[in-house]
Amino acid sequence: MPLRSARAALALTIVAVTSGLAFAACSGGDALPPAKDASAEAASPTPEQIFRAIEPQLVAQCGGTGGQCHVNGTFASAPKWLGPPDKYASAKAYRGILPATGDPDDSILLTQIEHTGPSLQSNKDLFGRVRTWIGAELASSTAKLPSSALVQVNDGLNTIDLPSVGAKVTFSAQTNNDVITLSAIRLTAGKTAVRFKDPFFVVVPQKGKIVTDPTVNGFETGLVTLNAAASADIGTLILIRWQAGNKVKIVFKVLEAAQPNADAGPTGECTALDVFKQKASPAFQTDVPLVDGGTRSCFFCHSGGDDVAKNALDLSQLTTNPGAACAQARNYVNFADRGKSIIILNPTGQANPSHPVQALQASGPVVTAIRAWVDAEK
Q1: How many CB atoms lie within 10 A of CB 251?
Q2: 347 found inside a domain
């Protein structure tokens, strides 16, 4: 559970056909009304009608002998997602069958693997019909939510691009056995303003059920508007039962381009550029000891000496265009708790476990100089 520091669907058509027509006698020479086209009157099946058509096959596949599995749950405490009194109501209500992402392919029914019982993937016909039902349910109630692409999470700093709005999400990840902590999760706007609401992480294993629960893996941020280049700190998330090879995507209830808003907070431009040039810039250019021996400056790695470092924080214009470099560094200032800014935590060894620099003292000259600029930013 989180800690908040904080398809082409297979078409299934059910057509009602009238088998007989009754005609009433007409008087006064009235003409008979024109015959109606039965095919024109055939309505698209409702989601419930689609489910009822597959219900017997679904019970046979997943219910087990005498309904002991997913109907009655008497075998191995199996979840009763086809439970009484109404299998349709039970299936709809069971968390994850109709995924919060609005994407049928994220349903736990479609992504469940062979377990004590068979998976739907072993029955292609039923799989397709179930997918059609799930798609119909979602189409009638839930729009597909905007999301990032699937990405692999690595220990250390991670960046997930949001190309639809030109923004990105960054966070630091650290695994400990089957637990992974995603800290300092932050969304940064690009060249245009962006609006977002209530992001949540979807965990996609190599095999098995996809986890799409925003109440477990998400944040209630409300509607947030960021001006160009501005950032918002989202929080920290702890994911349990993490497996090597898992991928994630970030889904938003709202993610869209926005008009610049004078009340949306910082614009991303530095407000303490003089302090940055006097304090932070020299600190970034100071050689510091590396874990593997030798010394390097932050500027060396983050200006191109290390592609991963530059992609995370681009300081290549530190000496030629300090304002641009300052704006880049500013993305890693936590305005709610400046002492927990990634720009402070990384050099002191408290954020990215893969950071190549030996942990510096918070009271040392490099960190205190950077902190002076961080405190001066508005």
Answers
A1: 26
A2: yes
Q: What is the largest CA-CA distance in the chain?
A: 108
Residues 155 and 252 in one domain: yes
Determine how many CB atoms are found less than 10 A away from the CB of residue 49.
Answer: 15
Q: Which of 216, 233, 257 delimits the end of a domain?
A: 257
Residue-range definition of the domain harbouring residue 360: 273-376
pLDDT of residue 32: 40
Supply the pTM of this predicted model: 0.66
Regarding whether 243 and 311 lie in a shared domain, the answer is no
Number of domains the chain contains: 3
Q: What b-and-e string marks burial along 288-308, b requiring 16 or more CB atoms within 10 Å of the CB? A: beeeeeeebbbbbbbbeeeee
252 and 287 belong to one structural domain: no
Give the pLDDT of residue 250: 98
Q: Which residues lie below 8 Å from residue 11, measured CB to CB, with a gap of 6+?
A: 132
The H-or-E segment that residue 288 falls in is strand 287-289
Residue 14 domain flag: no
Mean pLDDT, consecutive 10-residue segments, the chain of 378 residues? 33 25 29 45 84 95 92 91 95 94 95 86 94 95 92 92 96 93 91 94 92 92 89 90 95 93 60 94 95 92 86 88 88 83 89 84 95 94
Angle at 183 between CA 374 and CA 316, to 5 degrees: 50
Phi-psi region of 101 (alpha: psi -120 to 50; beta: other; left: phi over 0): alpha
**Quick check: is 157 in a domain?**
yes
